[in-house]
Amino acid sequence: MRLDKKKNSCGYVLQATSWGIPPVMAFLWQDNSTVHLLSTVHNLDLTTSWVEKLRRKPRDTSTNAVAARKPFAADEHSKLLAIPKIDDDYNQYMGGVDIADQLRSYFSTQRIAQRNWQPFFYWLLHTAIINSYRLARTNGSKALHRKFRSSLIVSLLTMAQKPTPTPQTCPHKLKFNFIYKRRYQLRLRNPVRHTYITKTSSEPQPIGGKGTLLGHVLIWRTTGAWCLWCRWQRKNAGPGVDLRIRQVKSECQRCHVVLCRPCFPFFHGIGNS
User: Which of 7, 168, 198, 225 is deepest in the core (most CB within 10 A)?
Assistant: First the structure.
């Protein structure tokens, strides 16, 4: 830490600067009264850190009247004096936090939340909106606070509307649509009857009746499913018998039901299962 003491015509400055990142300057300005400030952006360079301001002559009954009245002549009531820029910036911009809190209180989006990160998110959202509003006013915008927020909401909603993707801009969408349409066409051409076996279900019957395989062909299908006749046999076997239910990729072309190769003739009434 470095300690510097500088003096001009209207007071003296005691500066202590730490060597951290960023460095913090502890500032003491002795004028009519003692002023203590901390800053990470100021220094006490003699060429850039001092500004001239019109200062009024303190009263005889002021706290530090003996030292503060020395730069003034007997008939002077005000005079241009050099003061530290950090002191001038504080006088110009103090109250910024209070103004931000005031603007934030007008239109609050804070909601009761059980998660600890949500209040922090709402605070960041408020801060971003208030900073945007202040920047817009600094750049010449004449919009009031309510109108600025309404315009911001409309802009965000407009940006959120995604355009309808086209095959030129979204190749994978075109591929998905082709696969979906192909599967839909196959399902229409060769629909599968989804027969559910329950406690009250009756015996499933093939199209055209039992006792013949005329027109019935076992064909391959793209997806696997449980054999219908295996499920029926297990249901009739009762709770004590553990029969295997086969998952196959074959079905009857005419009946449109999933069947394994051993159960294909039994389902159509050929042989004894």
Answer: 225
